[in-house]
Design a protein that fits this description.
The chain starts with 15 loop residues before the first strand and ends in a 22-residue tail after the last helix. It is 34% helix and 20% strand. The chain has helices spanning 51-68, 92-105, 125-134, 148-153, 160-173, 191-203, 221-224, 232-248, 267-273, 306-309, 328-336, 346-352, 360-368, 383-387, 389-394; strands at 16-22, 24-25, 37-38, 80-84, 114-118, 138-144, 178-184, 208-213, 251-255, 258-261, 277-281, 286-291, 296-302, 317-322, 343-344, 372-373, 378-381. By secondary structure, the chain is an alpha/beta fold. It has 15 helices and 17 strands. The strands form 4 sheets. It has a 9-stranded mixed beta sheet with strand order 9-10-8-7-6-5-4-1-11, sandwiched between helices. The model is unreliable at 1-5, 41-48 and 399-414 (pLDDT under 50). It folds into 2 domains: 16-271, Alpha-Beta Barrel (TIM Barrel), CATH 3.20.20.70; 338-394, no CATH class. α1 runs parallel beside α2 (92-105) and α6 runs parallel beside α8 (232-248).
């Protein structure tokens, strides 16, 4: 089948969110493949991470934003996500200065969701109160497990008691939107242990849970020295039991690994899955920006090393490229099909600039295999299609959509 030669045509920009990357952490976890760097005497200006060095990084973030502003003139930021690393290493004063600087440079929608990732090992009641007072209104607490032996194997710096205390501190500080980040399929884990983690998290009454399987990624310690993980069959049993428990406890699965109570969906993360735009500032941050005047979508990445990022004479931008027109359908599907309810078909045209007829033969093929449903009104998997998502997505690697070998699809991270 011959690929369509139709070029994208955008009528308007999609929603725009802001991602801010804080690259430092106290200890690099053996499973982590994010751009994170252990705080050391050589990390920032040959000093440890002090209030003075926070100031340098905040200044760099705002300069980074200023350089990107011509890409988004006339647009507003819908929501903000501050990830890392361990953003909760920074003081409340630093985030107050940062958010004030952002508002002075680009409109931020009223009542915007502003999320901060927090490590229970860096939790302090006064600091959480300061974050709330600075305008952060949602916390994502990286618990991973409530079993101390599992936390030790994962290289976490906190224990179960600290995790519970961190959640309670956040509530006391005034946070009404809290996510707990949990993993399953951990070394030596069985179904009972995995469900115990979920039950402990649920007992704290969070509005949101991120629950996902531990995977071994390249360029991590676990990749070079892999632990013994549960078998594929056992991991499937854990997943099925956990999904059943979450449903019984009133959590709606709105993304493959994201669950919300009472419609407390993360709007920032939903924007990712709907192939919206996001502006990324900070060391190693990624952006996806629609440029309506020339009907293109740009992928941008900032320089990864914090020391280089902080050098005034060095550019923040490390690489930039337009997404090839033949890759746009695949990139859209890689995101949208992670949503159990899918998206309206018209969103495909709105966010890729392409006619939905481009994917019609592939969707119909997926429907024949009972992997997708409700076309042409929606782009949505069946329960089977979601359970075997990789098989569903594989249908979109075809002679209709030909990814270029030199163009790497950049995965979205920090979805919690």
């Amino acid at each position: 089948m011959t690929p369509m030669t139709m070029q994208p045509t955008f009528q308007q920009n999609p929603p725009l969110c802001l991602y801010i990357h804080i690259p430092w952490c106290i200890k690099k976890c053996p499973y982590c493949d994010f751009n994170s760097h252990v705080v050391s005497t050589k990390t920032v200006d040959s000093k440890t991470l002090t209030d003075e060095n926070e100031k340098y990084y905040v200044q760099a973030l705002l300069s980074d934003l200023e350089q990107d502003l011509p890409l988004v003139w006339g647009r507003s930021i819908e929501h903000v996500f501050i990830g890392g690393g361990t953003p909760s290493l920074f003081s409340a004063a630093a985030f107050d200065q940062l958010l004030s600087g952002i508002r002075a440079r680009i409109p931020l929608k009223p009542f915007a969701e502003i999320t901060l990732e927090a490590n229970p090992g860096t939790a302090e009641a006064a600091r959480f109160q300061g974050y709330f007072d600075a305008g952060i209104n949602r916390l994502s607490i990286g618990v991973q497990s409530f079993h101390n032996d599992q936390l030790k194997q994962l290289g976490r710096i906190h224990d179960s008691t600290q995790a519970i205390n961190a959640f309670q501190m956040a509530r006391t500080a005034g946070f009404k939107q809290i996510n707990i980040d949990l993993m399953y399929g951990l070394p030596g884990q069985n179904v009972e242990q995995a469900l115990s983690d979920l039950k402990q998290a649920i007992s704290l009454h969070p509005e949101h849970l991120s629950w996902y399987q531990l995977t071994i990624e390249p360029n991590t310690h676990f990749y070079s020295s892999p632990p013994t993980l549960p078998s594929e069959e056992l991991s499937y049993q854990i997943s099925e039991a956990g999904l059943c428990l979450l449903q019984q406890e009133g959590f709606t699965r709105y993304e493959v690994s994201a669950f919300a109570r009472d419609n407390h969906i993360s709007q920032h993360n939903l924007n990712y899955w709907q192939f919206g735009d996001y502006l990324g500032i900070g060391a190693g941050a990624h952006s996806k920006i629609t440029h309506v005047p020339d009907n293109s979508i740009l992928r941008r990445q900032k320089t990864r090393q914090p020391v280089t990022y902080l050098e005034p004479e060095k550019p923040f931008l490390a690489k930039q490229q337009s997404i090839d027109v033949n890759e746009l359908p695949l990139e859209f599907m890689l995101n949208a099909l992670r949503l159990p309810k899918g998206v309206e078909s018209k969103l495909f045209q709105a966010h890729t600039g392409l006619n939905p007829q481009l994917i019609d033969p592939l969707v119909k093929k997926a429907m024949q295999k009972q992997l997708m449903q409700n076309w042409p009104e929606r782009i949505q998997t069946t329960e089977t299609g979601l359970a075997f998502l990789n098989d569903t997505l594989a249908l979109f690697f075809s002679d209709v959509i030909k990814p270029q070998p030199e163009q790497q699809i950049i995965p979205v991270t920090h979805i919690n």
